[in-house]
């Protein structure tokens, strides 16, 4: 029996064979795509992270919505689709300038949006600050150091137009969570270490004296500490490949400059660091705190014993239904207040 006559006598089997061949071909193409580009894995991670970020923000609706805070959204600070920011101010402040917290959102450099931390920033602003949430272009759409360049542009915009937004240009604090914490820390290091600024070819947009402090939550400050052989190895490879634009990022001289732990000096601003006890990035925060303390930089920390219960996962500070989340919020407010002086 020829192949043609077999196909005619068994049409259903022939259709199934064609479908199977298509599935195998698609599987091969997908596997190849995962091996030659970070995009497929990055989009999967982005979908999961964004869903988590939206749920986290929604959990704070009941607490944030009634607060008397004025919000201005999507203010453009530079050229480009993603270069927008939101400004939060207590209504009672009128037009008075307030100490200002500029917060860079997290998301593993490949996801996230300022809107996913909107309620938390509103809660912070209600404590008597001008708070700014900054968007930047995520990876793989843009690679390192684009978010740092954009963050620097946002700071310059806010500094120049401080009167319009109720910002005290002499009392600015850079803050961030997760990947945003790394971006904030690197931006602060560039502002306070001109040799480093020259090395990464990014000029400070505000005077070092204006940057009074940093608030760094659950960040990564030394990429060489990333355990790509551990249980989160595939995830780490995806985000680092996406952000750096290089699969062999570990051998890239430019990528090494993202490890801000190696470039902070004694001029780095006073810093508050926190991380959950069950966060795989905990060693990064601990190493950063140790380094800053050794340099004589004023450091305040909120770390938890290994056996703390309930175990605190990544981004624990945004969960204000927990005692630990409330403690982090209170300590952030107290730290920023102490570093920026009395508030109106």
TrEMBL record:
Coiled coil: none annotated. It holds the Pfam family BD-FAE. It comes from the Bacteria. InterPro entries: AB_hydrolase_fold, BD-FAE-like_dom, GDXG_lipolytic_enzyme. The chain crosses the membrane at residues 12-34. GO terms for molecular function: hydrolase activity. Residues 85-291 form the BD-FAE-like domain. Keywords: Hydrolase, Membrane, Transmembrane, Transmembrane helix. This is Alpha/beta hydrolase. It comes from Mycetocola tolaasinivorans.
């Amino acid at each position: 029996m020829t192949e043609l006559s077999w196909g005619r006598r068994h049409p259903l089997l022939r259709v199934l064979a064609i479908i199977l061949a298509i599935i195998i071909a698609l599987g091969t193409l997908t596997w190849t795509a995962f091996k030659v580009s970070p995009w497929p894995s990055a989009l999967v991670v982005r979908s999961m992270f964004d869903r988590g970020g939206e749920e986290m923000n929604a959990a704070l609706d009941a607490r944030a919505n009634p607060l008397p805070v004025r919000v201005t959204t999507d203010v453009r600070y530079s050229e480009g689709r993603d270069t927008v920011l939101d400004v939060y101010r207590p209504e009672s402040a009128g037009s008075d300038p307030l100490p200002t917290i500029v917060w860079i959102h997290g998301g593993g450099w490949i996801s996230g949006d300022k809107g996913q931390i909107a309620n938390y920033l509103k809660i912070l602003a209600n404590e008597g600050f001008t708070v700014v949430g900054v968007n930047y272009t995520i990876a793989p759409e843009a690679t390192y150091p684009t978010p740092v360049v954009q963050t620097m542009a946002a700071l310059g915009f806010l500094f120049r137009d401080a009167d319009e937004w109720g910002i005290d240009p002499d009392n600015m604090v850079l803050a961030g969570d997760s990947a945003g914490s790394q971006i904030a820390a690197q931006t602060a290091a560039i502002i306070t270490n001109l040799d480093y600024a020259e090395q990464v070819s990014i000029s400070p947009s505000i005077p070092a004296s204006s940057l009074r402090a940093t608030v760094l939550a659950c960040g990564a400050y030394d990429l060489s500490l990333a355990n790509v052989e551990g249980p989160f190895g595939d995830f780490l490879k995806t985000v680092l490949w996406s952000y750096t634009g290089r699969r062999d990022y570990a051998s890239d001289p430019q990528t090494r400059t993202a490890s801000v732990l190696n470039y902070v000096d004694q001029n780095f601003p006073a810093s508050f660091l926190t991380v959950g006890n069950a966060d795989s990035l905990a060693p990064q925060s601990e190493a950063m705190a140790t380094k800053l303390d050794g340099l004589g930089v004023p450091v305040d920390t909120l770390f938890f014993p290994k056996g703390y219960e309930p175990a605190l996962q990544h981004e624990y500070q945004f969960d204000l239904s927990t005692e630990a989340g409330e403690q982090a919020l209170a300590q952030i407010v107290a730290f920023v207040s102490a570093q920026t002086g009395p508030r109106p």
